[in-house]
Fold each of these.
Amino acid sequence: MTGSASRPVTGARHPCLIVNPRSGGGKAGRFRIAERARAFGAQVFLIDPSRPQDLVAVARRAVEEGADLLGVAGGDGTQALVAAVAAESGLPFVVVPAGTRNHFAMDLGLDREDPSAALEALTDGVELRVDLGYAGERAFVNNVSFGAYAALVRDPAYRDDKIGTMVRILPEFLARHEGPELVVRAGPLTVDRPDAVLVSNNPYQVDDPAGLGRRAQLDSGLLGVLAARAETPAETAARLRSGPTHGLTRLATPDDVVVHADAPVVPVGLDGEAVTLPAPVRCRISPRRLRVWVPRHRPGAAPTGRRPPGWAVVRRAASLVGRARGPHTD
């Protein structure tokens, strides 16, 4: 992550860490996150996977009981829920990347291979001030998606194989026009009837409209917007083969982004979680709203492992769909 000034911090006196033992196939257990957090002096709340729990209420109760720092060991969706409480309470927030992909942690420069390393922020850390996105009343740390992107999140296979599911579903979905009809408005810009919309907390890199890669900053005060529309499978394939600038609307804006739908509620993907929100959905950015504590020493710039293929893999998949089906004649 670049562009965010940091300052040294002293350890929290009453930190509280919320741990999701199911995230990332049980990463929290494998890395003994709860035990290590307690050794750092944190109060630990273990999410019970057998029953639904209101994590916002859990976090607010921790604040009422004297917590001076909130943290989460879990995926991005869980991170966002508790981050919202930390922001509204003015408390620092610690990210322990115990989810599957941990995009937010990646952009913070955290070690995703060893999530327990993030706990060093409790005693030897620095504070970053980063932006927080909101879709209606719901906060998001990465992005909120509509249309085809939201359909990806709702597919049961998505959690286990995000890239493979995107390849399988997105071009076909674009061609078939499923879901509510959308209109996107951002300042003077209007996009009518896009099939896929992604609104992100800070823009993704220009070659990554699928939101699988990185953001150069988390404190630009800008929403990233990508909207795509395709009339037929052949058109989808042609547009995607020719590159991300054809058939797409891309924007980085400080303005609110309002997504209208011809339905009272709209399915969305909120940091990888499938939810429904009342339409229209107003997305906004709250600049430098979140105080994130990170370890003083962390990997930083380069993600580990294979670089996510981003738009290129969608382009190849759409090419196959176009060749297999040909023009749509309905």
Note: The longest strand covers residues 281-295.
Amino acid sequence: MKAVVIRRYGSPEVLQYEDVEQPKIKPEQLLVKVHASSVNPIDWKIRKGMLSLLTGNKFPMILGFDLAGEVIAVGSQVTRFQPGDSIYGSTGFPGGAYAEFAAVSENLVAPKPTNLTYEEAAVVPLAALTALQALRDQGNIQAGQAVLVNGAAGGVGIFAVQIAKALGTQVTGVCSTKNLDFVKSLGADHLIDYTRQDFTEGIAQYDIVFDVVGKRSLSTSKRVLKPNGIYITTLPTPEIFVQGILTAFIPGQKAKFIIERPNTQDLVYLKDLIEAGKIQVVIDRTYPLAELAAAHTCSETERAVGKIAIAVAS
């Protein structure tokens, strides 16, 4: 099969499009013909070696977490899927979706939303699960609350705004001037242009500050958090570890970080929201698998509006 592999950590040029052996499935796995995948920041952070303590140095390595495709074969212990099913979901760590076929656990995928193309479905899992689990599990989000999303036009941000609205909150989106109308179209009630205003210096207060881009901290956000407000980040820095431990045991404001955990139940929940029209998928651009290096380069600019899709098979 065709796949994009890396044989060392480095720049986008280490991504090589070549022939590799098709994966063999374990009893709990599905063999999936991958129709589409996507690019997430964690993909190029792994490629650059930023997470080498976790990923090690076992090469060649196939990256890519998100996928959407068709089930080709199932392992002996699989009970929920059969060949021919259209699915979407995650490969799990450290990847494997940048290929024509992938072996994935049935517990990491769900039926594909019927109103999405494969490319649209493939950009959902990691980003939308991150948003959902941050707001629901870490933020204990409740209807009527005030939520601020810093980085509202990015991959996770677009889902965070829409999920927060679907759960009945008042949402403030922080983005650049050119994306104000776009974030408003996602359902944001209030907008802050970060090129003109620092949200931490405003007068409004929020129950949840979800810092998707990891540019702030509990310390810098204290004055705009309500007394029992929660600051959540996608970037688990040493500072947030310490703040998280300290604030866990005392009343008042909390600091937390989110590490996405793919699972079928949450993917089905997102599928239902998508099919009900409560979440729209936004793709900035689509690259063929053979041009994955260009897709990574685009993602690293951190200027994409929405997600970057990878077309693998028709």
Note: The first strand starts at residue 2 and ends at 6.
